[in-house]
Amino acid sequence: MEQHRSSNIIRETKETSVDLTIDLDGKGRTDITTGIGFFDHMLNLFGAHGRFDLVVNCDGDIQVDGHHTVEDIGIALGQAVSKALGDKRGITRYGTFFLPMDETLAMVSLDISGRPYLVYDAGGDMAPMIGQYDTELTEEFLRAFAFNAGITLHVKIMYGTNSHHKVEAIFKALGRALHQAVAINQETANEIPSTKGLL
């Protein structure tokens, strides 16, 4: 019988309304509406490259700026991944992916450890905006995601010059690394992947 580890998170604040569903055992199908076109594109890429079915609907105060929308979706995505993983029994736990995009090379390495941490190195200056997306919000998204998913997350742009390529490489590599980490290891399918017996 095919396994589907899925969850839904609804997050309502005075600033945003987020309804997010993820299936970690999906086919990479996405339906994303955040009000920020470039961010929609990034979440579509994350889902496609991670082979996650991902539905995100957000009504946020983007007339102010994109900060609350991007951060709150990061929170909801982290909570949804954590909920879908349950006790994390059988997962590979670790994932690392180097992703080239033209002149850019990005590295994402993560541990579904239960110990949230973010190390982020954007590899130098970025353009302040890509379309209606504030590039500073990439770090805010990653932090919100990592801390709510309970993931140790390292993200580094090894080199590159084009800001669009840098951010896109990060989201693609995040999907690929997370796909590795949540995959079930058949050799240890009934075990918690920790000598402590708890993640």
Describe the structure.
The mean pLDDT is 96. α1 runs parallel beside α4 (163-182). The longest helix is centred in the last third of the chain and has 20 residues, at 163-182. The protein is globular, with a radius of gyration of 16 Å. The chain has one domain: Imidazole glycerol phosphate dehydratase, domain 1 (Ribosomal Protein S5, domain 2), CATH 3.30.230.40. The relative contact order is 0.20. 33% of the residues lie in helices and 30% in strands. It has 4 helices and 10 strands; from the N terminus they run βββαβαβββββαβα. The protein is of the alpha+beta class and 199 residues long. Strands 1-2-4-3 form a 4-stranded mixed sheet, covered by helices on one side. It has a 4-stranded mixed sheet with strand order 5-6-10-7.
